[in-house]
Amino acid sequence: MTPALRQSLKQLEEQWLQWIVQNNRQGAERAVDDLLDTARRLGMRRLPDLSAAAVARAVQAAKQRDFGRAAWALEAAERLDPGRPETAFAERFVARRQGNYLAAAVAGLRAYPRMLAHPLERYLWFQNLLFWFVALVLVTGGLFLAMQMLAKGAAVYRDLADLIGRKLPRPVALAAAALALLWPLAFPYGALWLPLYWSILLWGYASPSERVVLVALWLLLGVSPLLLDAQRRHMAVALSPPARAMQGLKEHRLYGSLFSDLGVLRSVLPESVAVKHLLADVHRSLEQWELARSLYRQVLEAEPENTSALLDLGAYSFNKLDFGVAIQSFQKAAAIDPASAAAFYNLSQAYSESYMFDEQRAALKKAQDIDPTLVNTWLAQQHRVVTVSGGMARIPEIRRQLLLSWGRHEARSGRLELFRRGLSLLVSLSLLLVALALHLARRPLGYTGGSAEIFPEGALDRWGRVLLPGITSAEIGDGGRAFLALLVPTALLMLPSMGRLGVPIPWRYDPGSSMSWVIAILGLSLYFGVRLRRELRGEA
Amino acid sequence: MAVEGTLDLFKLPEILQLISQQRKTGILTVQGQQDIVAISFLNGRIVAADALNQTLEEGLSQVLLKEGVLRPQDLARAASEHQSAGGRLIDLLVERRFVERSQLLEALRLQTFRLLEQLLRWNQGDFKFYSGDEVSYEDGFAPIAVEELLIQAAQNAQESMRPTAPAPAAPRPVPALPATAPRAGSPPPVAIAEPAPPHSPAPASPRPVAVAKPAPLYAPAFRPLESEVSGPFRKMRVEPRLATPAFPAPSWLGWILAALLAAIVVTALVTVPDSLMLPFPWQERERAGLARDQRAALYLKIDYAAKTWFLLKVSFPDRLQELIAAGLLSPEDREDSEGHRLLYAASEDSYTLDPLERGRPVPGAGATEAITGNFLLDPEFLNVPSESSVQPLVLLD
């Protein structure tokens, strides 16, 4: 890090302290202007740490009923890192403290869409949604099996007892049938094996639609570990310091540990040309040209035809007034990529500085022929030479390398490991085969037919059917409807636990889970209200 | 015993009256050109009637639909299930509460009545009466007296003034009843002693039917566990009822088993949610990896909160509770995904987090974070040499 850069960063720190001690809006606004000017000089547009601190200051001020300070702190937060959901959530808090519930509601409405506007948070939110959905389907599957046992459990037990009772006395047969139902609980992981075992037993009693649900659940149980493990790797990489640094650079976010995180990136992938190229771009944008030049040269050693590196290295030579070397770089870039308007534009500028006006005009014409709009813009903005952020464009490539590198830490190779990973899928397929084999073996002996009527007629019948979704469908063997009837209330009940099933999203101001509780309670009230209404009308 | 003849010899009302007067129990089959109808008698009263061309289920379903007792969609659902699960459609309709049993019995009586009414219009065909000790019929069915049938049919005929249905053109010999035919070891049905000539005119009064000898023709079919017969005699519940299963299971057993399973699922969701998604014993490594990633994300969130606090207070908070009170963390963030409470300890320029299990830190799960490397917090990071006055290079623009 050059002293010049350190000085700029020091300026930021001092300007922040200036903001902290301000007691009036004008002074605070001036401090924010200065902060943003300094950030822009470093090629950055957002200061997320300072925005979060301004949000915290606003909340603190609102708690002290200093709503004026809270308001300008929120404004500062919005300017320092525009569009953050945390700012809107804090605004909701401040408005609520003020007793302005309409403004609070408006702020809340603004906050939730913002949660999906930022790539990292959106990615984590969707990953959490995936984890939650898988857990939801599996929990619903467990409850579906419970419902099946409710409808058919007595028949399963009776048939087992009949089967055993052919050779054993009645009391022994009854006890043995109970043991035959519950034996998995005696083993480690019994809570897992019991539902799987029961699902096999239920196969013979199930209707075709119920069998489809059972097969789907078995397959999900086999596939979900593989899916979740793969997603977990992506998530871990997304949360790693190098990935956060790259995301910060992409969004021009200057946060406190950006440079440390970039250091981690370099140490994690020391040989990566893409990383060198990215770091070269970072140094260039921070005006650390000497460091950038060294890295661009390393990139060109590995990738001699890297046009963007050639252009940026040419720009370095140009800025050092070494026009001969600059012309060589630009000529090479233009030869490799004849469709590069930037290469011909830079070449024209270098020719111009070398008093080679004929060549200058020819190169400029070529550039204008390729992309007249862009070239005219450069001319209008008086760009002497243009640089290309080829390293930034390689962020997806670096992410892939990080993923591979991360996988190397955790994954173990070998056939045994491959077998271990695929074992869950093997188990799910085995469940299907065992169920079919058992059914074929049992079928000649017959099954106690049909589902039992779960509720006797009467008041209990009506309330029971309202409060236990899927029970009527389980009675008539409609597997799809029974599963879906259970899925809806289970989803609503599990909504507040979404954060627990995935990873905590690193919000800088926590919005809490009140909204999910509200949706869950309202949704459940509505759902059971509709069911009750239909039952009373005799439609259920 | 069996009695048989043709309808041009004996009119159907006469045959019915004869069976009624003699309080016979058995089955009368009447075969026309296009259909065969079987009528079951119990002590001279009609308890069931069934036609070959229309199953009991079809006829009954039509009556139920026509009378508005059953909704078409309910019938479709029941029929779909019936196709897959087997059993009797009418039993399914009652079990699924699409119709009440009393409604079903009423409809069945109506359908039987209509079938017999149609049958009474036949004037050609063959009949055969199989006498027995028992017949199968729907439990709870109110028997139809022959007199009642004949009077009602006569009234209906007068009211409707409809012409009689075309009689079968050419009678065919009565086939042996598929499932009720004599089984091995049973004597075959014996023909009546004096068969009438084919085209003799119908007698003015019923002729006595000669009976050869009683035969236990239906006894095997009426065994308790053989309640189903096929052909025109479709599945009917048999008197006496089926014996109770050897091992009856109490109805609450299903509730116990379901409650056990539901408790397992809910407990897993509340206590070890990760185990729902990675449930198998050999996935311990994946579960540990997921817990590690979840903890890392939680630590990152806490780090953001602690450093935001530092930006305002120039020190780390003494307790995590202060970050929660400031709205930077939620109360759930005091525990990791495995339910371990986090032990937080702060110093001047760093803090540590340790998940506790039974009061002791979980090995390898702790973390230490410091202000080092953060240009906004770390004074050393920005230790600019005083003699430096070099400005950032501005070579472009």
How is this structure best described in words?
The complex is a heterodimer of chains A (540) and B (397). With 540 residues, chain A is an all-alpha fold. Chain A is 77% helix and 0% strand. Chain A is built from 26 helices and no strands. Chain B has 10 helices and 9 strands. Chain B has helices at residues 12-21, 56-66, 72-85, 89-95, 101-119, 146-160, 252-271, 273-277, 284-313, 320-325; strands spanning 2-6, 26-31, 36-42, 45-51, 126-131, 341-346, 350-357, 360-361, 367-370. In chain B, the strands form 2 sheets. Chain B has a 5-stranded antiparallel beta sheet, covered by helices on one side. In chain B, strands 6, 7, 8 and 9 form a 4-stranded antiparallel beta sheet that branches. In chain B, α2 (56-66) packs across α5 (101-119). At the A-B interface, α1, α3, α7, α8 and α9 of A face α3, α7, α8 and α9 of B.
What are the salient characteristics of this protein?
heterodimer, A: 540 residues, mainly alpha, 26 helices, elongated, B: 397 residues, alpha+beta, five-stranded antiparallel sheet, four-stranded antiparallel sheet, 10 helices, 35% helix, 13% strand, disordered C terminus
